[in-house]
């Protein structure tokens, strides 16, 4: 199947990528041609998750979308050295981005920024590196009742107990080809859904500090726009100037 897709891909002329936009200093340019689906050859399968892929063998399939936008370099509040803000719903994140003159990043923009022109499986390369991003901390069991408490003090205490995030930009190797940092690990990020098969207009990307297999692909489509959780944050995007 993947060999057939590779042959078809080789015989077709690639679409020219859009030009990179000029963005505000706190944002990075994201420009490329996004393919809805990719197939790869896995070299290291561990507990059902692939930790290493064969370089150079990739089949790009499905809908083709030209992407051209500006994206926050860091997770919100988009300041190097600040902790990402979590326990945010998609609706709250939307409001904050709008207040900053920006908007939510789309699922396809996020993947394009993470993968770069080589469509990398991880922002730093072809193989999982547990030290590159903050994604391999030990999991801590969650008290759903405390997180859902109507008492903000109780919610804050449980969030603090679970917290294993790091200041943004702490791990230089966790930089995507576009220049965006911490796209994998640290805080899971809200995006505006691009795939029509997902049930909500909100989706989550990038995993968090206890999801070592997280990469540029793979979308958490399980939660609606009012959902919030102890490890969910976001970053903003902006339409690129013409």
CATH fold title: paralog of FGE (formylglycine-generating enzyme)
Low-confidence segments, given as residue ranges, are 7-13
- Overall CATH architecture: Alpha-Beta Complex
- Overall pLDDT level: 93
* SSE arrangement, N to C: HEEHEHHHEEEE
Topology:
Layout: H1 2-11, E1 27-46, E2 49-72, H2 90-99, E3 103-104, H3 107-115, H4 144-147, H5 152-162, E4 188-192, E5 202-205, E6 232-234, E7 236-239
Parallel strand pairs: 4-6
Antiparallel strand pairs: 1-2, 2-7, 3-7, 4-5
Characterise this structure.
- The chain is of the alpha+beta class and 242 residues long.
- The chain has one domain (2-239): paralog of FGE (formylglycine-generating enzyme) (Alpha-Beta Complex).
- The chain is 18% helix and 26% strand.
- The protein has helices at residues 2-11, 90-99, 107-115, 144-147, 152-162; strands spanning 27-46, 49-72, 103-104, 188-192, 202-205, 232-234, 236-239.
- A four-stranded antiparallel β-sheet has the order 1-2-7-3. The chain has a three-stranded mixed β-sheet with strand order 5-4-6, with no helix packed on it.
- Strand 1 (27-46) and strand 2 (49-72) form a beta hairpin.
- It is globular and about 55 Å long.
- The model is unreliable at 7-13 (pLDDT under 50).
Summarize the structure.
This protein is α+β, with helices and mostly antiparallel strands and 242 residues long. The protein is built from five helices and seven strands.
């Amino acid at each position: 199947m993947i060999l057939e897709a590779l042959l078809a891909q080789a015989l077709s002329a690639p679409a020219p990528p859009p030009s990179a936009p000029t963005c505000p200093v706190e944002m990075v340019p994201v420009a490329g041609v996004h393919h809805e689906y990719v197939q790869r050859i896995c070299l290291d399968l561990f507990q059902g998750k692939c930790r290493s892929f064969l370089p150079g063998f990739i089949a790009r399939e499905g809908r083709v979308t030209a992407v051209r936008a500006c994206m926050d370099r860091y997770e919100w509040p988009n300041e190097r050295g600040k902790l990402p803000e979590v326990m945010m719903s998609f609706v709250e994140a939307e409001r904050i981005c709008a207040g900053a003159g920006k908007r939510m990043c789309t699922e396809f923009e996020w993947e394009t920024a993470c993968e770069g022109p080589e469509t990398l499986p991880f922002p730093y390369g072809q193989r999982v590196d547990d030290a590159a991003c903050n994604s391999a901390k030990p999991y801590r069991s969650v008290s759903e009742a405390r997180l859902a408490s109507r008492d903000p003090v109780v919610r804050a205490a449980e969030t603090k107990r679970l917290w294993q995030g790091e200041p943004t930009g702490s791990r230089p190797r966790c930089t995507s080809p576009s220049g965006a940092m911490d796209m994998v690990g640290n805080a899971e990020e809200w995006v505006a859904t691009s795939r029509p098969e997902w049930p909500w207009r909100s989706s989550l990307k990038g995993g968090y500090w206890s999801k070592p297999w997280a990469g540029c692909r793979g979308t958490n489509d399980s939660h609606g726009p009012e959902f919030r959780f102890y490890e969910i944050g976001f970053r903003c995007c902006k339409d690129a100037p013409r």
